[in-house]
């Protein structure tokens, strides 16, 4: 049976209810009683991140790391705060520290890749996303950001493929079709750009284009005709 008055349970409920000010005040009270309370230190830093008080959050992360310099929870909170402060070189240092403990931490690999992207080190960022995808081929963050890195490097065809893979993993992400469409436009593949913008996967584009060719009509007309048939069959 869960003790509802247990500090961990109370903090979890406040966090889930998005009561970050209340969470901060509660943790502050715990620290007044026990200054080295790890639960309070870790979660007060988390509350401050959600309150967008990043510098203050880092101060509490540092207090945790003074007690335990390899505390992953504090390291990740500090990484998140530093990302928001655009301190990307420091983020890389902390990511390397986490990866020394767990080389397969995909969250950290992706964070490292994102900071490398911000520093215009896109080729190095690709290495991080590749490592993450070896661990989890369906890692949506790694798929999307690998596509972004490839795009920055001018590898539009490969970038399109990774946007497409990301779209297969999570079809609800609205930014994927548009990102893919823009790259087709850069390649001057206007029919593909149109179909991509409609959310069509790469594998399904070929049939629509082949049908348009067979029916001697535009891809736009073929797509509209297919949509009309689908609508009427429902």
Write the layout of secondary structure elements.
Blueprint: H1 7-16, H2 20-33, H3 38-50, H4 54-67, H5 72-84, H6 88-101, H7 106-118, H8 122-135, H9 140-152, H10 156-169, H11 175-186, H12 190-197, H13 202-214, H14 219-233
Helix pairs in contact: 2-3, 3-4, 3-5, 4-5, 5-6, 6-7, 7-8, 7-9, 8-9, 9-10, 10-11, 11-12, 13-14
Describe the structure.
77% of the residues lie in helices and 0% in strands. The chain is built from 14 helices and no strands. It has helices at residues 7-16, 20-33, 38-50, 54-67, 72-84, 88-101, 106-118, 122-135, 140-152, 156-169, 175-186, 190-197, 202-214, 219-233. Helix 4 (54-67) packs antiparallel against helix 5 (72-84). The chain starts with 6 loop residues before the first helix and ends with a helix. The mean pLDDT is 93.
- The tally of helices reads 14
Instruction: Let me know the largest β-sheet.
Output: none
Helical residues, percent: over 70%
Please state the structural category: mainly alpha
Shape from CA axes?
Answer: elongated
Mean pLDDT metric: 93
Beta content: under 5%
What's the short version?
The protein is an all-alpha fold and 234 residues long. Helix content is 77%, strand content 0%.
Structure characteristics:
77% helix, mainly alpha, 234 residues, single chain, elongated
């Amino acid at each position: 049976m869960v003790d509802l008055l247990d500090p961990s349970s109370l903090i979890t409920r406040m966090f889930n209810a998005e009561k970050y000010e209340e969470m901060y005040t509660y943790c502050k009270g715990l620290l007044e009683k026990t200054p080295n309370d790890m639960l309070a230190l870790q979660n007060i830093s988390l509350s401050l991140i959600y309150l967008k008080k990043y510098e203050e959050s880092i101060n509490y992360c540092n207090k945790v790391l003074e007690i335990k310099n390899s505390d992953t929870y504090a390291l990740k909170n500090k990484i998140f705060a530093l990302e928001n402060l655009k301190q990307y070189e420091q983020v890389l240092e902390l990511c390397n520290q986490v990866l020394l403990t767990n080389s397969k931490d995909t969250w950290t690999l992706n964070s490292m890749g994102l900071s490398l992207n911000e520093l215009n080190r896109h080729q190095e960022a690709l290495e991080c996303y590749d490592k993450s995808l070896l661990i989890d081929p369906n890692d949506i963050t790694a798929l999307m950001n690998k596509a972004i890195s490839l795009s920055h490097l001018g590898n539009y065809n490969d970038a399109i493929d990774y946007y497409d893979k990301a779209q297969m993993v999570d079809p609800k992400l609205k930014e994927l079709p548009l990102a893919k469409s823009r790259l087709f436009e850069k390649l001057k593949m206007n029919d593909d750009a149109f179909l991509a913008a409609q959310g069509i996967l790469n594998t399904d584009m070929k049939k629509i284009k082949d049908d348009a060719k067979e029916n001697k009509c535009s891809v736009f007309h073929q797509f509209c005709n297919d949509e009309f048939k689908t609508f009427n069959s429902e």
